[in-house]
Amino acid sequence: MNDLAINWLIEQINLQQSNSLNQLWVVDENIGDQWRSLPPMNLAVICNRFDVAHQMKTLFSQAEFSDFDFSSIADNSLDTVFYRISKEKAVTHQVINEAYRCLKHDGLLIVAGYKNEGIKTYLEKVGTHWNTKVTQKKLRDIYTALITKPMQHQEHHLLDSSSYTTLRNIHTDEFPIFSKPGQFGWNKLDAGSKLLLEALNTIPHELSGEVLDLGCGYGYLSLEASRLPRMSTISGWTLTDNNAAAILSATANCEHYHLSARVIPDDCAMSIQERFDLILCNPPFHQGFDVENNLTDKFLASAAKHLNPNGLCLFVVNQFIPLERKALPHSNMIEVLINDGKFKVVRLSL
């Protein structure tokens, strides 16, 4: 993925490095591989993706995996913040608010994004709420700006971040679930997950042993599955996700409903060594991901690596994703349990 906004930001990072200032790069799921072209440098990073934060530690002086938590950064301490706007408004508002707090007077917010993502509106809001002039520049399909925090103290109004850091209830038919912005589908129940649970309930025998929830999100699959009578002899639960907001939400849900579980931030369970008797997976094959890229293979390979012999793995994916074909190198048995015309649940075993 060649993201023009990321390319432009990388150019700005290279230009600003000659000043050796206190600089922060805020990174989210928009990041591709372009950052690997940068040389090692004195640059701090906050990233909500576990895999990217881990990899960036090899290049930058500091790379923190967090849900855009700026609490360790002192007020008026940064010279520059680099930011490619996020897909979700609450995330973008959270980052802009924190950038204002953390930047020194006369510090720079260097920002870019696409018009269809609302970048022009965000820049207008910054001008109004920071009481400063914002000059936008259009470069092909993106808009960019270098925004200066006013030198003198100004009355500053926060942008509405929908109480970004706060967990809140999503009321379901069964029980409330805690969730928050910053993760895919945070404010609704995923139809695919519901279908996977329906398929799980049709397995004709009681299930036992250890469960891995691969790409757990806020933990809905594990919470619901743990309530099924056929799951009463499950001995342990492990939930893992690459997204910081998902880890926070899943941890809170497991604690609230007294589900004894390990919740582990990880890149597709790469660092988890154990094998499991049951793997549940609703992977992020949604809009914005190429269904033919290696993400499909990555989840399938991880499932095969972590599944015990005679174990059971259930994937739910959009019906147009060729999971059965892609699973051939990884599974001895491949069976579509349910296909409702939009999603399908595929059973795999070694």
Q: Uncertain segments of ≥5 residues (pLDDT<50)?
A: 287-292
Gyration radius, rounded: 22 Å
Report the sheet with the most strands, covering strand number, pairing sense and barrel closure. Answer: 7 strands, mixed
**How far apart are the first and last residues' alpha carbons, in Å?**
33 Å
Classify the secondary structure makeup into a structural class: alpha/beta
Instruction: Determine the CATH topology of the largest domain.
Output: Rossmann fold
- Fourth CATH level, the homologous superfamily of the largest domain: Vaccinia Virus protein VP39
Write down the secondary-structure element order. Answer: HEEHEEHEHEEEEHEHEHEEHEHEE
Overall pLDDT confidence: 92
Total tally of structural domains: 2
DSSP summary, beta strand count: 16
Write the layout of secondary structure elements.
Elements (H helix, E strand, L loop, with lengths): L3 H13 L6 E5 L13 E7 L2 H7 L3 E6 L12 E7 L4 H14 E12 L4 H12 L6 E3 L2 E7 L19 E3 L6 E3 L11 H10 L7 E7 L5 H6 L7 E9 L2 H13 L4 E5 L10 E6 L12 H13 E12 L4 H5 L5 E7 L3 E7 L1
Parallel strand pairs: 1-2, 1-4, 2-3, 4-5, 10-11, 10-13, 11-12, 13-14
Antiparallel strand pairs: 5-7, 6-7, 8-9, 14-16, 15-16
